[in-house]
Amino acid sequence: xxxxxxxLALLAAVxxxxxxxxxxxxxxxxxxxxxxxxRRGLAxxxxxxxxxxxxxxxxxxxxxxxxxTGPRAVEAPDAAVSAPPEDTLEWRDHAAALxxxxxxxxxxxxxxxxxxxxxxxxxxxxxLVEVCSTATARELWRLRRALRRGAGxxxxxxxxxxxxxxxxxxxxxxxxxxxxxSRAGRxxxxxxTRLGLRRWRAGHFDQAVAALFQALAVPGLDERRRALAxxxxxxxxxxxxxxxxxxxxxxxxxGDRPAALEQAQRLTAHVQRAREEGVTAESLAxxxxxxxxxxxxxxHTPVQ
Length: 304
Hints:
Order of helices and strands: HHHHHHHHHHHH
Mean pLDDT: 79
Number of helices: 12
Helix content: over 70%
Low-confidence stretches: 22-35, 45-56, 58-87
Distance between the termini: 116 Å
Shape: elongated
Structural class: mainly alpha
C-alpha cells in the first residue's frame, strides 16, 4: 500500500466516525439545544390570569369536626421504654473511654461501682461488653506482636479479661443477644488461653494453671475449645509436678517442711480441680502419680 492510499484510508475512517457522531447527536439531541428550546418555551408561555389566581386562593370550606364527648384519657408512658437516666450514660461513656485508653484498673472500678449502685442498665452493659470485647482482641494482637520481638507486657490483656468477666457475669448482662455473648466469650477464652500458654512457656506454672481454669470457666464454649484448654492444662500440670520433684527435696534439705508440704498440696488441689472441670483420670495419671509421690516423700522424710 502506498502512502497516498494510506492517507485516503485514514480520511475515510475519520469521515465514518464523524458520520456516526452526527447520527448519535441527531438521535439523542444536543443537550444545549434542548435547554435553549426549554427557555424559549417558558418565555412564550402566557401569564396566568388574575381570575385563575384568585380562584386558586379561594379558601376551602372548614372540615366539620365531631364534637368531643369528654376529655380524652392520656395513656401513661411505658416504663420499659423510658430513657435511662443521664448519669447512666455518663458512667458508660467514661468507662468506654477508659477501656479505649487501656486504663483497665480504673475502668473496672467504674464498672463495679455502677453495678453496685444499680446504675448499669442492660443497654449500657451490652454496649460496654462490645467495647471491652473489641479492646481484648486488640490487646491480644499487641501481645502477639510484642512476643515476636522478645518482649511484651501481659498486664493490659489481663486487665481487659478481668473487666470483660465482670461485665459478662453481671445481672444486666443476662439478656444479651446470643451472638454478642458468644463473640465476647470466644475472645475471653482466647485471651485466657493465650496467657496460660505464655506463662507455661515461661515456667510460671501456677499462673498458667490459673489462666487455663479461667478459660475453661467461660460459658458457652464448644467442645473443640474446651479440649484445647484441657490438653494445655494437663501438660502444664505434668510440668509443674516435674518442677516440684526438684523443688521439694531442696526445701526439705533446707528444713522448710511447711513450704514443701504447701507445694505438694497445691499440686494435688490443681489435679482435683482439673477432674472437676472434666479432664479424664487417664489424662491426669502422670500428674496425679507425681503428686502422690511428693506427698509420700514428705511424709517419710524425718523432721530436722
